[in-house]
Sequence to fold (172 residues):
Amino acid sequence: MSLQILVDGYNLIHARDLIFDPGDLEQARNTLLDWCAGYKRAKGHAVTVVFDAYKSAGLDSRRDMHKGVSVHYSPYGKSADALLVEMAQKLGPKAVVVTNDREVGQKALMHNAAWVTSSLFADRLLEACLDGAIPQDEAALKPSSLRDTRKKGPGRKPKKSRRKAFRMQSKL
Fold:
């Protein structure tokens, strides 16, 4: 089953300041989109990145494609969060919403979509980069940002909803 990954673009950029320079948003957007394109090539999942443009009165809702990644800009008066929830509602269990916004994540879960934090997805992007899916010259890799994968503490069986979330995350 192919997943549709819905990414809150600016949220992911600001979640990993070590990777993306939030001072230059144009550069950070392009780097994020390049990484998502490499991730799409490596994993085969459709990726949609949503950026906030709700404060820009001159811009209407805009959709672009960047190397196979669908890019959406929210329309005037509508936030990217609302657009993400709307898309998750349409896609249902095929959707994985990537955001650090707890409210958006909870709404996505209500529509049977999975929710993954931006920092976890950023780690997955880094792993894809290290595996060669993304050209190294596009990556400003910081080895300290990778997680330690050793187990800590006693094992226990998580709740059924958490196990479902883990299964969705393992497909990323």
Summary: Residues 25-43 form the longest helix (19 residues).
